[in-house]
Amino acid sequence: MLRRSLGSIVSLASRKYSGKSFSSNMAQIINGNEIAKEIRGQLKQELKDLVDSGNPVPHLTAVIVGEDPASEKYVQNKMNACLEVGISSETKRLPASTTQEELLQLIAELNKDQRVTGVLVQLPVPEHINERTICNAVDVDKDVDGFNELNIGRLALDMDGIVPATPLGVKRLLEHQNIETHGRNAVVVGRSKNVSLPMAILLHADGKYATKALDATVTICHRYTPPKELARHCRQADIIVVAVGKPGLITKDMVKPGACVIDVGINRIKDEKTGKFKLVGDVDFEEVRQVAGHITPVPGGVGPMTVAMLLHNTLKTAKKQFCDRQAS
Amino acid sequence: MLRRSLGSIVSLASRKYSGKSFSSNMAQIINGNEIAKEIRGQLKQELKDLVDSGNPVPHLTAVIVGEDPASEKYVQNKMNACLEVGISSETKRLPASTTQEELLQLIAELNKDQRVTGVLVQLPVPEHINERTICNAVDVDKDVDGFNELNIGRLALDMDGIVPATPLGVKRLLEHQNIETHGRNAVVVGRSKNVSLPMAILLHADGKYATKALDATVTICHRYTPPKELARHCRQADIIVVAVGKPGLITKDMVKPGACVIDVGINRIKDEKTGKFKLVGDVDFEEVRQVAGHITPVPGGVGPMTVAMLLHNTLKTAKKQFCDRQAS
């Protein structure tokens, strides 16, 4: 109760003076665009060194099945980022009528193709295709998304492998901002296999192994966590990572003063004032920033980090393949 | 704070009348021996049906490296249980000086041997052998312990696979006692890869997939969770599963009245009164039973369930192999 009272006092204070001389009470906004740009710069240099030392240019092939405008946009962002860093890339577009067998056939070809060092199937795939079968079909060594069952197993076991880009990006943000995680309370809201579960694993596991995990106490909340309990868990958290796709889920009264709030949600909603569509996260940004210590915006927070970490993964898988080839 | 006060009142009341006419206030003791016996009876029938329909008798090979009295005892318990259920089994004993290469060679032979349907390497292995390399070397389809990286990945993804015996046994105990987990708060104390992490996955994940997980809100506490925070998380929990190997770690003041307390710890300590050694768990049993709604004893709680679930896994792996052979 003490924490909540404190929270109310601080947030009232923030509201009173917001935008004026006391705006320093507001959360520090984590600039994902800037941090991702910095990382892309490092990756560009890394790639140059790799190629300069006689290796081929890494090549990422993305596959889109069907016509989803969001998927098109995501893949376009990834391809643009590849171009910037110097990774060769191409997008294969298959019609929505593609059978699972045909998609598996393409993946098998890409797995075999020595020129292709990274393979990515943009999700979601059409409903008649089993997403899990597809993710597992991508060669574990070319699996830049880290969605193959073997890469998930390795992550769970703190082993070196490919970590899904979004949780890896969140980890990088926390490290970049020097957010203390060791022994702190973290809450992950959501239990998706591509974001939330790998996030919970990275947050709670032992920092002394290959994944350099974050040693936090972690609570996983999800659709069956009663709202009152969700609020209580969040209020006790030093770090909140939310990834569920519900605008406004995390409100000011759920956040402990000074907590770090990472918003993975991307929701397209209609702005009541302008009538135009806009992107928002799962956090009530304007309110929560009055209480939190750090907060990521949407867009410009986690999103660009996901793309940067995909490039990181693409470079990592390529390096491993080049190394394996030299060894064999 | 309210909960803690309530806890104190209830526990005082329990202490006052303990052992007398008000002993019904005491926790129900979950009899793992009895539940495991019931399961072994079912498995015996299942095995009979399997063999009666023309399949070979499943065969489990256990490997012990070095001479650890605890390992000898654990494996002996497993072999005895195999005998009771009708599973054929044998134990291969290798000297502590066995190299990793030699052990991998033996595992490769067992993997190939059609007669052997289950392979188990008793942990711990001597320090000069990499435990993870060994666990991953066991064929995923013969991996009755569920420690192979692929089985861990499948569990994390809610896929059908082999689940490590101890967390699977705890799940069965909870189900057998009709402990409500859906939307409840569970705390897992510990973050081991063989017990705690699979437990946290089974507790939090979605009940509608292959692993039939438990849909609880889950908090993972560990060595870096400050004691005060550990106590607070535990006091909020409807279910506590502790698996760290610290006698007396969970005390009465840390348990919410009516909570279900599952003790996975097995610690050999000297009884100050008798001077003899005895087994205790991680929970202060005599105190906590005055507050909890359900509690497992040590010994006789989780231990026998682990053995029963190993048999379950052995039967499951055998069935899959027989089925695959028929299909091919």
UniProtKB/TrEMBL annotation, chains A, B:
PANTHER family: BIFUNCTIONAL METHYLENETETRAHYDROFOLATE DEHYDROGENASE_CYCLOHYDROLASE, MITOCHONDRIAL, C-1-TETRAHYDROFOLATE SYNTHASE, CYTOPLASMIC-RELATED. Residues 164-321 form the Tetrahydrofolate dehydrogenase/cyclohydrolase NAD(P)-binding domain. It catalyses: (6R)-5,10-methenyltetrahydrofolate + H2O = (6R)-10-formyltetrahydrofolate + H(+). This is methenyltetrahydrofolate cyclohydrolase. SUPFAM superfamilies: Aminoacid dehydrogenase-like, N-terminal domain (SSF53223), NAD(P)-binding Rossmann-fold domains (SSF51735). Residues 30-145 form the Tetrahydrofolate dehydrogenase/cyclohydrolase catalytic domain. GO terms for molecular function: methenyltetrahydrofolate cyclohydrolase activity; methylenetetrahydrofolate dehydrogenase (NAD+) activity; methylenetetrahydrofolate dehydrogenase (NADP+) activity.
